[in-house]
Amino acid sequence: MMKKTIIATVIGSVFMLAACSDNTELTQAKEKLATLEQQSAQQVEKLTAELNQVKAELATHASQVPALHVKVSTVFEKEEEIKHTVKDEYDIETTTVHYRVQVPETGIDWLDTLLVQVYSNTDGKLSDKVLTKEALTQQAQQEFSTIVDDIKKEPISGYEHISNAEFEGQRENIVTFSHSYYSYAGGAHGVGGINYINIDTNKKAIITLNDLIAPAQQDKLKDILWGKYKGDQAEEDLFVNRKDFDFIKNNNFYFSPAGLHFVYPVYTLGPYVEGEVELTVSWYEINALLNKDYQRESIEMDSVEGS
Question: Could you list the residue ranges forming a coiled coil in this record (predicted)?
């Protein structure tokens, strides 16, 4: 009888210990689950905060430079015919003076201010002084009046000053405008050209050659451009030789799906009859030379689009 009682007691103790063990493991599991749930909630909260921050930054950038809707504004245009006193058959009877200045308008204050500074010159450089559109109009009027007064004193066959604006396009944070100009003040022909203005909307600044390619890499760019210019021709048959070519620093370029296009003014790489010379360097050739801000990630897609 005693033996049976001991056995029963032992068995009961085993079941009690098992129950206690189960309860401990269950408690530990519940605590672990609660910890994981808390960590998950904290992680979700953190990710949500980061996502909201990114959304806010994107919204801020979009509000600063949305997809541009550009209109071209003619700030000044005037034409006047001046009649001269004729004393002999070779004298000029009349001179037509035509003067026009345009600027792009984007509706974004800082960008419009920057564009006025650029379009006030025909060399693609910023004006030395900050001008408003109204001041640019007054400047053009003063120049027109001075030209008319000068021609009344010394007649010439004609005078034309044309400064035209155009919006070329936008790719993410890079917006490009063109500034075409033509000037004629008598003689055989006038002189014209086109300057491209590339603006980084993140930096609110014009992209220069040094911004695009570090000076240390620019010799490699010159090698590529020289190869494009020379082609299969002998150097003695070219308008400029390699030594002179290396002294030319060209800030006049624009982006396209095909690559970067460098535009040289009349008389720089060829005679007047050839006009401006444009050398195109593909993304495959130039991408590695560019500063990281302006490198393309999807070169293959760009090349297909540009083909």
Answer: 26-64
Closest of 152, 79, 70 to residue 103, by C-alpha: 70
Residue whose C-alpha is closest to residue 78's, from 167, 191, 163, 192: 163
pLDDT, tens digit only, all 307 positions of the chain: 555 555 555 455 545 545 555 667 677 767 777 777 777 777 777 767 766 665 555 444 544 567 888 999 999 999 999 999 988 988 899 999 999 999 999 999 999 999 999 998 766 566 666 688 999 999 999 999 999 999 999 999 999 999 999 999 999 999 999 999 999 998 888 999 999 999 999 999 999 999 999 999 999 999 999 999 999 788 888 999 999 998 788 899 999 999 999 999 999 999 998 999 999 999 999 999 999 999 988 765 444 444 3
Range 81-84 contact pairs with CB under 8 angstroms and sequence separation of 24 or more: 82/148, 82/151, 82/152, 82/155, 84/152, 84/155
Q: What is the dihedral of CA 98, 106, 116, 137, to 10 degrees?
A: 40
Comparing CA positions, the residue from 301, 306, 229, 234 lying closest to residue 270 is: 229
Write the single-letter amino acid at 140. A
How many angstroms separate the Cα of 132 from the Cα of each of 11, 122, 127, 275?
99, 17, 11, 33
